[in-house]
Structure formats: structure tokens, C-alpha cells
Amino acid sequence: MPILPTEDELKQLPLRAIVAYAARCARRVQPDFQPKEDRYVAVVREAIVCAENFARADESKRVDVATIAAEAYRISRIHVAAATAYYAADATRHSIAAVRDSSAEAAEKTVNAALAAAMLTADAAPPNDRKEFVMAAAVRDYQNLVSLGLGSFPEPGKPVDASEKGPLGWFWPTHERLAGLSPREFRRSTAHVRAREMSLPGIEVFIDPGKASKEVVQAVLESLSDLHRATEGLGLEFAADELYVFATEEAPT
Amino acid sequence: MSIPPLGISEILTKFIGRAVEGSKSLVRPITAATLSTAETLLGLIKEGIAPDVGRMKESLIRKMEAEADEQAAEAKRKLAEAAEAANRADLPKRRDALAKAELRKRQADAAKTEAEAEAIRVDADTRRLQATAEARTRLIEAISKLQQEGGGAFFNGKNLQGILRLGYSPVETESENPETD
């Protein structure tokens, strides 16, 4: 079972990255929150969005984060998704205070809120066998955030897009996503994959050899095939398809 | 001051990497592996490690008459040899992967209890995540070495997104007749 990042490990990240981590934890359980009251859905959505906006340093919309966090807190007992969204907003609130007041205490509270968000999603991910996938996805996010080199704690750090369109990618990596689906979704997914079977198109790779030897080019292709095998495939087989010339514009002299 | 004509500086060869087929029981893992690979490569594009070939100006990518240029012909020969050598070097690894995949399946089938099956699955997932991270690092190193030699590897964002869309688009027949849980 993967182990969630500890407090000390989260402190390897700057504040925006920690908030991004919490926001993504909240996004993972958000679809499970389906209350009868639409306004509750809106509260959860706003709480996560304010965290995402802080993570990417988007200040285009002035929002009262404290109010949003307070509203999320009021409904946090209804469902784990609401509680997680609250912790994402809470991490945002404390991060803003940490930056504004250079407060070490607020920075610590940011870390605690993010830890709570991650633990809640892992403990309550329904059905129970999704737990490991939720945790693996959170661990992957943490590792990716570290590798992005966004800055150091307790600085705000570089902006990061916590959405699926950003550098952290999808909330659920492929295998986790396949296995983390609801029973009905999982059946659909497997039926779908069966239906398509081997009809997926090939992966296109364009190589410019430059002055590299055959062996260097070969190593790139072999590494690609190794990547496929690492994800439990049998490898890739390469065939040259077309030859292009890429002509670059030269600067005026 | 004059503006010189466009200078041909790089020769790109497009390779298609197709997933090696396996037995019927392995179809789904292989398909999932292709989706995972496409996802990882999209990540490399996003991180700027391997540029998206689609971002290059269309007008700057022109199909080439291979015989017209000696330099291009040599590059083509080198790339063809590299692909052949990669495919050849891959064979023993492929056999090994096939044996491992079949072993994993046998172990999963032999699990007597839910807990045993769970332990096997968790172990496999942990190993897969670790192996993927290591393979990704090796790929980045290989691309970096190619770049140091004045070359480059590019992927096609549209191709990768197309693969993922195909892999995850809803099943029409089931959406018309939804199941109940």
C-alpha cells in the first residue's frame, strides 16, 4: 500500500504546491458528493476552485476565502468530499495568511490542512478497495510536485496549475483510473477496452538524429518500448512511416 | 541586409510504435499499458522535455523526396537501422515480459482468498508504479543524450490525445441500455 507524504515531506514543497496537492485530493472525491441540495455542490466547488486559483496565482477574481472555508466547514459533516473541500479552502486561507503576515504558524497550518485533506480522501474513498488507488494518486501528485521544483517552504513558490490540464495531469493515472471506477463504470470501461481490443492507433514518435549515432537513436526507441513494458505491456514495435524535412527560418543578416 | 532563404536544418523521421500483441487474456493489460504510455508521453510534452511536433509550423514541415538529398538519405538509413536494431534488441525483453505477465495472471487466478488476491494486486501495482517511474527517467535520459548530439525526439500531442480518447470514450451500446448496480 502506498504511504501518503508526511508532514516533513510536504514541507519540501512551497505553499502554492501544497495547496495544489490538497485541491487535487478534493477533486478526486468531489464526484462522489451528490447531495439533494444544489447549493451544497456549489459550496464544495467554490472551495476547491479557490484553492486551485491560489495554486496558480490567479487573482483575477477577488473572493473571500475565509467565508468560503467557513461555508464548506458548515457542511463538512455531510460527506467526506465536503470535508476535503473544506480542508483545501482552509489550506488556501492559511497560505494567504502565511504569505501576507510572514507567519510560520499559518504555514504550518497549511501543511496540516493538506495532510487532513489527503488522509480523509484515502480513508473514505468509496468503495473501500479504492483506497490504495487514491493514495497512489496522491503520492504521484506529491512526487510530480517535487520534481517540478516549484520553490521551497514556507515561500509561496511558483504558480502551478492543479487541474487535469496542468503539469500534474489527470487526477487518476490510467491503471488507477480503470480500477478506481465505480462498479458500473468499471464494467463499462472493461467492456469498452475489450470492444476496442487492439484497435488503438500506434504511438507516433518523430526523431531528428542530428549528429547522433545509430546507438543513441536506438536507445530512445528502446526506452519507449521499456516504458510500455513497465506499464505491463509487452513492448512496442517500430516501423518508419514517413520522412520529413523540418526547415527552420533563419535570422535576417 | 538580406533575408536568406529557409535553411533545411533538421530531418525528422516519423516512426509508429505499435503495441506488441499478446494472447487473448493479455489484451486488456496491453491496451491499458498503451494508454499509460500515451499518458506519460503527454506528460513529457507538457513538461517541455519532448516537444509536440504539432506545434511546429505546418508550413515548416514538408514531405521530402528522399532521393533528392544525400544527407537525408543517410539519415534515413541510420534511422531505419536504429529501428531495426531496437526491434531486434527488444525480442528477449518481450519474451521476458510475456512470461512475467502470464505468471502474474496465474498467481491472480490461484489466489484462494480475497485478501490474497488483494495482496497480489497491491504488490503488482507498487511494482508497476516504480517500474514506470524508472522507465520514464531512462527515456528522459535517452532523449537528453540525443539532444546533446544535436538531435531530438518529438511526439504528437494530437496522436496521444486521440489514443486516450479512444481508450476512454463511453461504450455506445451500454449507454443506450444502462445497467443497474
Topology:
The complex is a heterodimer of chains A (253) and B (181).
Chain A (H helix, E strand, L loop, with lengths): L6 H4 L4 H15 L8 H18 L9 H10 L5 H22 L2 H21 L6 H17 L26 H7 L2 H14 L6 E6 L5 H17 L5 E13 L5
Chain B lengths: L6 E13 L7 H20 L14 E3 L6 H41 L3 H35 L3 E4 L1 H12 L3 H5 L5
Helix pairs in contact in B: 1-4, 2-3
List keywords for this structure.
heterodimer, A: 253 residues, 2 domains, 57% helix, B: 181 residues, mainly alpha, disordered N terminus
Task: Tell me about this structure.
The complex is a heterodimer of chains A (253) and B (181). By secondary structure, chain A is mainly alpha-helical. Chain A has two domains: 7-188; 202-253. Chain A has ten helices and two strands. Chain A has helices spanning 7-10, 15-29, 38-55, 65-74, 80-101, 104-124, 131-147, 174-180, 183-196, 214-230; strands at 203-208, 236-248. In chain A, helix 2 runs antiparallel to helix 7 (131-147) and helix 7 packs antiparallel against helix 8. Mean pLDDT of chain A is 82; it is low at 186-198 and 247-253. Helix content of chain B is 62%, strand content 11%. Chain B has helices at 27-46, 70-110, 114-148, 157-168, 172-176, and strands at 7-19, 61-63, 152-155. The longest helix of chain B has 41 residues, at 70-110. The termini of chain B are far apart. At the A-B interface, helix 7, helix 8, helix 9, strand 1 and helix 10 of A face strand 1, helix 1, strand 2, helix 2 and helix 3 of B. Strand 1 of chain A pairs antiparallel with strand 1 (7-19) of chain B.
